[in-house]
Amino acid sequence: MQIFRTVLGDVPAEESGRILTHEHLLYGYPGAELDHRTAFDHPAAVERVSRQVIDGMIPNGYNTLIDMTPAEVGRHPQFMVDVAKRTGINVVAITGFFPERMGVPYYWRRQTIEELTEFFVRDLTEGMVFAWQQTPYKAGAIKIATGQESVFPKPSPVGAYGRHVHEVEDRLIRAAGKAAMATGCGINTHIDPMDFEVTNPGREQLEILDEVGMDLSKVIIGHAFVPPQVNMMREILKMGANVQLDHIGIPWRVGSAEELDEAMANALIELIEDGYLDRIVLSFDRWFFNPRATVTESDPQLENEKVNLNYMFTSWVPRLKAKGVTDAQLDQIMIHNPRRILSIAV
What does the sequence similarity comment in the record state about its family (predicted)? Predict the structure, then answer.
């Protein structure tokens, strides 16, 4: 039997509905939770996020959301539980960390591969720890992340073992692969678009996972599209992994949402024509609530916080259909592919 391990317990995979594979219900950069200015009213925030889910996910057939927020970037088990109860959707939490330069607290940078593996497995099988307290709420997938060399984006330098991967990230990826194999869960990844200038970051992540024996068909390479590098996506797919087209309606590192939407739509058509229909997933990478301290010129509100959840079906799906994509193909991408990759056999 295949299940999704949600924060409210295991749910049969066939009850998934459409699936958003990379979202953030609550998000804040490491350290934001210590700032007096970011303190928020928990019930009001739950209601605010739940309203977005009810208005934008449920009418469009979405019933499952993978909350890709790492522990040091605002992962809040009780918040996810409360949103799941309020809305009725399946919320799947992840275990894992953000890229080394932006995340991975000092405590965890010192851990061995074995210790990191144990941490991931316990999050997945016993429940996540929050503010020093064990919770019964389990993670259901693992996140790995590389890139983002500095606050001002630039390509990552050559790091561990000749790859553009920092040594701590290399350890975390190996631990993630071992934990995924031990539990049967899937892995979804973060890469930074700048790294496409110097390498194929998705390929490098997969090489490390392959070295520990991970089944690459259970891996999604996230942000695999910016800028839409179709040949690099093909390289990832030829290794047996999956690619995620995300930031739909969100102009990340490009001039406009229109530019990126059109480029991603054309890339998706090419990949379908190449025979990779069963290896593509879609998401927004939306921040539903970011309790930032202030909005400034150097730290503006991002488009991730603004895009309407109905945008997928009011704008992008019509764009795809105009290019010949069928309802059956969309169901494959939005339901069956993520269900295969991210569900767990029990």
Answer: Belongs to the metallo-dependent hydrolases superfamily. Phosphotriesterase family.
Model pLDDT for residues 249-307, shown as the tens digit of each residue: 887 777 788 888 999 999 999 999 999 999 999 999 999 999 986 777 666 666 677 78
Is the torsion defined by CA of 188, 167, 194, 251 positive or negative?
A: positive
Residues 114-134: what's their mean pLDDT? 98
3-state SS of 6-46 is: ECCEEEEHHHCEEEEEEEECCCCCCCHHHCHHHCCCHHHHH
How far apart are alpha carbons 237 and 269 in whole angstroms?
15
What is residue 1's DSSP assignment? -
Query: Are the C-beta atoms of 206 and 243 separated by less than 8 Å?
Result: no
Q: From the CA atom positions of the chain, what is the Rg in Å?
A: 18
Cβ atoms of residues 131 and 101 within 8 Å:
no
Q: Does domain 2-345 correspond to CATH entry 3.20.20.140? A: yes
**pLDDT mean across residues, the chain:** 93
Domain extents in the chain: 2-345
Name the E strands within 192-283.
Answer: 219-221, 242-245, 280-282
Nearest to 144 by CA among 182, 185, 110, 106: 185
Flag whether the pTM goes above 0.85: yes
Q: Can the peptide bond before residue 227 be classed as cis, meaning omega within 30 degrees of 0?
A: yes
DSSP per residue, 102-117: T---HHHHT--HHHHH
